[in-house]
Amino acid sequence: MAVDLTPLTVASSLGIAFGLALLVQGMAGQRRAARIGDISTSTISSIAVGEVRVSGIVEPAELTLTSPLQSRTCVYYRAKVEQSEGRSERAILDEERAVGFRVRDASGDVRVFPRSAQFLVPDAFRERTGIMGDEPPGLSIRTGSAFQSGFVDRATQVAELLTVRVPGDPAVPQDEQAGAGLLGGFSAPGRREYREARIEPGDLVTIVGTALPFDQLEDAAGADAALGGGLDATGAIADPEVAADVAEARDAGLLEADPSEAWGNAAIPGFGIGRPVRAPELDPAATPMPSATAAEAERAERTFEIAPETLVLAAGPEAGLLVSLGLPGEAVAREQSRFLVGLLGAILAIASAVALATSLSGGLLL
Asked: Domain segments of the chain: what residues?
């Protein structure tokens, strides 16, 4: 028995697969919408241990990120660049990162640890290159590190604002400019589609997660690790060789338990920006650093030190962490719209199945 692969048979099979994929995504969206909508919002000052929902404004903690496609300061981004030529497509950048941050409402603020979080964030930037290969407005490829210090004093901010940056020479091909390394120097002909979603300081977010004391986090450093930062989905070191070296050093007693012993001066808040909150140990010939002011010291203490009993938000053992851009109503509406698309996918799958059955009944060769 052989099957005659007619265009209708192939199209019907693809329709079933695509429709079922939409249905699966829609059902996942409905579950997320139900989880967000079934919990009432708590003020941050009144949260208790357990699953909670909070809404507030994002504030940076120790680190911030620079998004790869628009060079915007953020605490989370998801970026993808696809190169198309004819019927072929290739992803030349597919990256997602997050760092720990704070959320503040009128009653107070809470620290969020993003490991294993699911971010529900729509695209903030989605453009394609022009027919002649010209890049879309708003594209500003990151040229430096993805990570920046979240602890920036006023003088540094003023200097940043007053710094004049000369844009790249448009006569120089993009693949030869500083940002080409981010895209791997890919220079094949064709068009590119750029997509970037992000959460920036000052954005309003809704978070559903588990509130627990800081000292009950299983791995505080791992829980704050950036997505794509060398850890797998469980928070373990992804590189087996690095993991083996760390395990060997731990067994040999070579790893310091105290950060001040392990990092020396680098463990002093404010040391990296030249405003340490206490006097560092320096070579006698070195130029002494000015100490931070009382206000700077208080901010550094708040940024880098978390009391053991302080409640924080993280993924729980039975429920993950959801971070959605906007108010709860906006988050629920976005996820429910995915569910409606999923229902359309179900209709497509059913119609394609009927068409396939019709095609096969007339195309079976005995």
From this structure: 2-269+305-365
Q: Rounded to an integer, what distance in angstroms lies between the CA atom of residue 72 and that of residue 339?
A: 31
- The continuous run of DSSP H or E covering 351 comes out as helix 328-363
Strands 2-3 and 117-120: unpaired
- List, for residues 15-26, the tens digit of each pLDDT value: 888 888 888 877
- Give the torsion through C-alpha atoms of 245, 246, 249, 252, to 10 deg: -110
Higher pLDDT, 123 or 149: 123
Closest residue by Cα to residue 59 from 98, 97, 110: 110
pTM summary value = 0.71
CA distance 264 to 112: 27
Alpha-carbon distance 91 to 357, whole Å? Answer: 35
| Alpha-carbon distances of 206 from 37, 63, 104, 120, rounded to whole Å | 11, 21, 11, 10
